[in-house]
């Protein structure tokens, strides 16, 4: 059941923002925002099937019969949410509340699709209601950047599952298995250990496939001497973990050990430099410097890290110049990854990723798996 007190705090934060911007009401349809605001865990799926309408005094949630009972269970009897499954369209429902509450400035998050916006304007005309409809740009997702205690607890738990699955898969891998077989075993290990979802499609990239940072697993059979990049995470009560480890099948070569040491140095140097108030692009550039000084600057091109929470990629970011919010100050309480890598085309790739919470004076890493290069006995 949703934590009622935590929900009140989150709604209060939204209302403070509404007061600041002069909004009479806010319309929300983005599932991660709705999950955060309502606290209704394991209720949302991939469908955009719900609409929330929040004023400075009231809060309403419109859904349909497929979800209504689950929302009732999750929200509880004492909820402040007025829940319904009226058989009307979401735009018509929203327009009727605008008219009922006499809201004159109704903000809509820009994640709402254009079809909804157009239909809402048409419904307002049909119902003889008039209001301004300003767009909010990432406003609610910005509220979600600083995680509360419940969110951190869920992500820490998700990471314990992820770490345990890594220990298991290191005992399972052997030459001759395909990347797809390894993925199936790793994902099964997460579910066996308490995951209720996957954070994203698991990446298992062996040998030369590892040089593609987001390679998809296929029928390639791993061989002795291969490096295997494994990027994966467990979902738990709608929150995510995210971890990458690179292992070697058999004994690593001197070159593989050398490149791994550079990636590890980049990871650990950056993690030691993180604290509240750093600038995202500065931490990214620190990783670039470590890797470039070692002679591999041409082989690290993606961003160093991204926020994790209800979405696997969300603000804030450790990103190169020109990427999302790269110049933003990283606040205390945000949860973010550190994932440098080196990718040698046609040969192999190495990535080492942790995630954790930014604190006033450091970086509290959730990931427990060691940074040592694991060599799988053959």
Q: Radius of gyration, Cα only, in angstroms?
A: 23 Å
Overall pLDDT: 96
Helicity level, as a percent range?
Answer: 25-40%
Spans where pLDDT lies below 50 across 5 or more residues: none
Q: In what order do the strands lie side by side in the largest sheet?
A: 4-3-2-1-5-6
Secondary-structure element pattern, one letter each:
HEHEEHEHEHEHHHEEEEEEHHEEEEEEEE
- CATH H level, superfamily name of the largest domain: Creatinase/methionine aminopeptidase superfamily
Number of strands: 20
* Biggest sheet overview: 6 strands, mixed
The end-to-end distance, rounded to whole angstroms, is: 48 Å
Q: What is the number of domains?
A: 2
Name the beta content range.
15-25%
Broad shape? elongated
Could you give a quick summary of the protein structure above?
By secondary structure, the protein is α+β, with helices and mostly antiparallel strands.
Structural overview:
With 378 residues, the protein is of the alpha+beta class. The protein has two domains: 4-143, Creatinase/prolidase N-terminal domain (Creatine Amidinohydrolase, Chain A, domain 1), CATH 3.40.350.10; 149-376, Creatine Amidinohydrolase. The chain contains ten helices and 20 strands. The protein has helices at residues 4-21, 31-38, 65-75, 90-101, 114-126, 139-143, 149-170, 179-192, 254-273, 280-293, and strands spanning 25-28, 51-55, 59-62, 82-84, 106-109, 135-136, 197-198, 203-206, 227-232, 234-236, 239-240, 243-249, 305-307, 314-318, 335-338, 341-344, 348-351, 354-358, 363-365, 374-376. The strands form six sheets. It has a six-stranded mixed β-sheet with strand order 4-3-2-1-5-6, sandwiched between helices. Strands 8-9-12-20 form a four-stranded mixed β-sheet, with helices on one face. The protein has a three-stranded antiparallel β-sheet with strand order 7-10-11. The chain is elongated and about 75 Å long.
């Amino acid at each position: 059941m949703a934590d009622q007190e935590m929900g009140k705090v989150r709604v209060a934060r939204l209302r403070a923002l509404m007061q600041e911007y002069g909004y009479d009401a806010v319309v929300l349809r983005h599932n991660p925002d709705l999950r955060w605001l309502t606290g209704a865990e394991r209720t949302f799926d991939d469908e955009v099937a719900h609409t929330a309408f929040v004023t400075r005094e009231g809060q309403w949630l419109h859904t349909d019969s497929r979800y209504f009972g689950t929302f009732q269970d999750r929200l509880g009897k004492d909820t402040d949410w007025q829940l319904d499954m009226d058989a009307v369209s979401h735009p018509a429902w929203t327009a009727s509340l605008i008219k009922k509450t006499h809201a004159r400035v109704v903000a809509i998050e820009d994640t709402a699709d254009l079809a909804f916006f157009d239909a809402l304007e048409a419904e307002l005309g049909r119902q003889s209601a008039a209001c301004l409809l300003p767009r909010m740009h990432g406003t609610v997702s910005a509220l979600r950047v600083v995680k509360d205690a419940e969110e951190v607890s869920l992500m820490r738990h998700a990471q314990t599952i992820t770490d345990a699955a890594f220990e298991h898969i290191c005992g399972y891998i052997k030459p001759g298995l395909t990347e797809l077989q390894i993925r199936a075993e790793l994902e099964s290990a997460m579910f066996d250990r308490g995951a209720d979802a996957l954070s994203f499609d698991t990446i298992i990239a062996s040998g030369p496939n590892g040089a593609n940072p987001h390679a998809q697993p296929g029928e390639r059979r791993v061989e002795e001497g291969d490096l295997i990049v494994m990027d994966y995470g467990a979902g738990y009560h709608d929150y995510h973990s995210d971890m990458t480890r690179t292992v070697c099948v058999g004994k690593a070569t001197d070159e593989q050990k050398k490149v791994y040491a550079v990636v590890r140095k980049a990871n650990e140097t950056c993690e030691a430099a993180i604290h509240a108030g750093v600038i995202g692009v500065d931490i990214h550039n620190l990783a670039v410097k470590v890797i470039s000084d070692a002679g591999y600057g041409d082989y690290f091109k993606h961003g160093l890290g991204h926020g994790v929470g209800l979405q696997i990629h969300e603000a804030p970011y450790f990103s190169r110049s020109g990427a999302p919010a790269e110049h933003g100050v990283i606040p205390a309480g945000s949860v973010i990854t550190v994932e440098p890598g080196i990718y040698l085309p046609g040969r192999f790739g190495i990535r080492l990723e942790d995630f954790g919470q930014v604190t006033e004076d450091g970086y509290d890493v959730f990931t427990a798996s060691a940074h040592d290069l694991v060599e799988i006995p053959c």
